[in-house]
Structures are given as structure tokens and as C-alpha cells.
Amino acid sequence: MNQVNWQRIVIKVGSALISPERNGCSSHYLLPIASFIVRCRQRGIQVVLVSSGSVAAGAHLFNDKTTSISVKKAMAAAGQTEMVATWDRLFDFSSAQILLTHADLSERERFISVSETLETLLNQGILPIVNENDTVTTDSVKVGDNDNLSAMVATASHADALIICSDIEGLYNANPHENSDAKLITEVDAITAEIYQMAGGATSNVGTGGMKTKIQAAEKAVSHGVTTYIVNGFNQSSFDQLLRGENPGTKFLPYQTPLHEDTHWVRHTTKILGEIVVNNEFSLASEQSVNVVSTGDVIDVVGDFSPGDIVLLRTSSGNKIAKARTNYSSCLLSVVAKQNDNVNSQPLVQSSKSILSDKFSAKMEVS
Length: 367
Ligand SMILES: Nc1ncnc2c1ncn2[C@@H]1O[C@H](COP(=O)(O)OP(=O)(O)O)[C@@H](O)[C@H]1O
Ligand SMILES: N[C@@H](CCC(=O)OP(=O)(O)O)C(=O)O
Fold this sequence. Notes:
Blueprint: E1 8-13, H1 15-18, H2 30-42, E2 46-51, H3 54-58, H4 69-89, E3 95-100, H5 102-106, H6 108-123, E4 127-132, H7 146-156, E5 161-166, E6 187-188, H8 193-198, H9 210-222, E7 227-232, H10 236-243, E8 250-252, H11 261-268, E9 275-278, E10 291-294, E11 298-302, E12 310-315, E13 320-325, H12 330-342, E14 354-357
Parallel strand pairs: 1-2, 1-5, 2-4, 3-4, 5-7, 6-8, 9-12
Antiparallel strand pairs: 7-8, 9-11, 10-14, 12-13
Helix pairs in contact: 2-10, 7-9
Bound molecules: adenosine-5'-diphosphate and the ligand N[C@@H](CCC(=O)OP(=O)(O)O)C(=O)O.
Adenosine-5'-diphosphate (ADP) binds next to helix 1 and helix 9.
């Protein structure tokens, strides 16, 4: 019986569980997770696996143990094969490898394509195994950690739950490796600045991002209606508890009313490719509805972007207002900004054309 009422879940497995010694893959900690995946599937729950560990798994093949980017990328390329093969051996059903970069998710058409492929694989009973395509990433196209990636995958696959399996019970009010009296937070109903303050970086030599990226992932997921857990993947009991509908770690409650699909994607999945700077007096008329930025408000432009790209709308004093899709290129808006500057407060370009945005997420359309 499915006591947890999930239909589709994403399980994220951290490097420490796959390659604890950075000496190839070990199935030691993967067996209980594989068994959990099998038991979920037997209950009719579809599963997507987001697996880290390619860098850690490939590390033993290289004499150069430095953390140079090019060596890490080579480790990832070599370790990825071993990591997927190790998982695949644990199942008597087929798995499929999906390697993604942020660019694949940040462009709407590609995001939908990824989403459709996940759907097709799941409906065919194949287990998707997702990782970041570390070998081809650069700073401008990488997600950078698999916690955030797993939340994006949970969104793209319309999952009900995201289970982040780590090397620790869950979120503590301070990093327990540095504070012996740290207390486990079992339930989080709102991800506030206080929650972020509790979360530190990774302290192991295999993990990336630590608790901070897990909180970011939880924020992305819960605002899409995805219940999120951080659990200790070393403990078999975590998985037994999950299947009994219990909470073995930290549970983040989903929004009662998730964000609109497109708003969520702009806010939580897209990458900012430039900035439109408006005057300090500018404010959004409404946090909920579509807002208007007139061309007369534009005082500066940062970066190179094209129509349709996602930009940050901010004031000249640095106040972040919204993430928005621009209908104009940086080139054209730079001209607009210069014209506004030349006539001081009397812009040559009136608000005959407008950019629309909605708070922090924003679609920008020409009205
Ligand atoms: N408040 C906190 N609660 C729990 N762990 C924390 C906290 N702050 C930082 N951490 C660190 O985050 C680590 C887990 O993240 P990470 O090493 O990236 O693991 P993974 O490989 O599973 O992603 C913990 O082992 C711990 O050192
Ligand atoms: N993509 C990288 C993992 C990056 C990452 O986020 O690692 P982790 O913090 O262990 O989940 C790899 O496969 O090595």
C-alpha cells in the first residue's frame, strides 16, 4: 500500500554515499537506496534519481589530485560511466542517463523537451538517472550543485516529493560538525532568512554546497508544491520511515497554492543574463499582477542580452526588484538609457512602449 500518497518522486543522492572514499564507486550505501527505489516502484510510485558522485568516483583515476577545473571535468567524465554502471547493476529494470546544464533548463523550449523526455521514460518504466553535465559546463551555464538541479528536475517532472539523501540527518540550527549542541529542525513551514542563516557550506571533501544549496533547493521545490525532505542516506531506517509516511529528517512543507508554472520557472530555473537599472523611485504597482516599466524609467543596462532573455530589474542603488523577460535587447535599451540621461528627467522616449514584469519572477511583454 502506498502510505505516502506519492505518485512521482525525485531522489537526490550526494557524493558521500556513492564514493565515500573518492576511490571509485561503492554499492555499500547505494543498496538501501536502490531497495527504496524498488519498493517505491512496487507501490506504483514513479522515481527519478538525481545522482552526484561522478567527480568523486573518477578521482582515483588521476594522479593530479588538485582541484583544477579541467582535471575535475575529466574526473566527472570518467566517473560518470562508473557511477551510472554501479546504479544500473543494482536494478533489474532499465535506467537512462540524462546529463544537463543550466542552459538546458533555462531556455523554455529545452526545459519542456527535458520535461517530455522524463515523462516518456517514466511512463515506460525506465529509471532516469540525472546529473549535471560537468564536463561541458562553464560558469555561465552551470547549475553548480545537484541540490538545486534536483529541485529543477522535480519541477520539470511534476513530482510530488523531493528526497535529498545526504550524509547528515537533516537541517540543524547550526552545522553539527562545528557545534556539538546543534539541534535538528524536523519541520519547516516557511523558508525564511533565519532558516538560511542556519545553513552552512559543505565540510566533507566530497560534497558541494552543504546545507545552503539544500535550502535553496527546498525553496524551489516547495513553491512548486513539492514536499521536500532532507534525510540521512547512510541509514536504512530513513527509507523505511519514509515508506511508512514518517519523517526521518527535515521536512519542508509545500506551498498550499504553488506559484504559477511560468512564474515559477522564471523565478527559480532561469538564469539572469543581464540587468536593467531603473531609477530609485521606481516601484512595482502590485506584487501579484503584471507591472509596467516604461522606457523612461530605464537609466542603465548591464551585460549583453537579447529579446526574450531573462534580466534582473534593479534600482541604481542596487535594490533588486524583479527577474523579468525582456522584449528588448541590451543594445536598444542602452540607447534608450542614454537618451533618458541626455534630457535629464524629460525622457525623449515616452512610455509608448512598455516592459511588463511581475514581482521577482515576471513575464515581460510589450504592451
Ligand atoms: N545547519 C546545518 N545542518 C546540517 N548540516 C550542515 C549545516 N550547515 C552546514 N552543514 C553541512 O552540510 C553537509 C551536507 O552537505 P554536503 O556535504 O554538500 O552533502 P551532499 O554531498 O549530500 O550534498 C553536512 O555534512 C554539514 O557539514
Ligand atoms: N555533479 C557533481 C556533483 C555536484 C554536487 O552537488 O555534489 P553533492 O553535493 O555531493 O550532491 C558530480 O557528479 O560529481
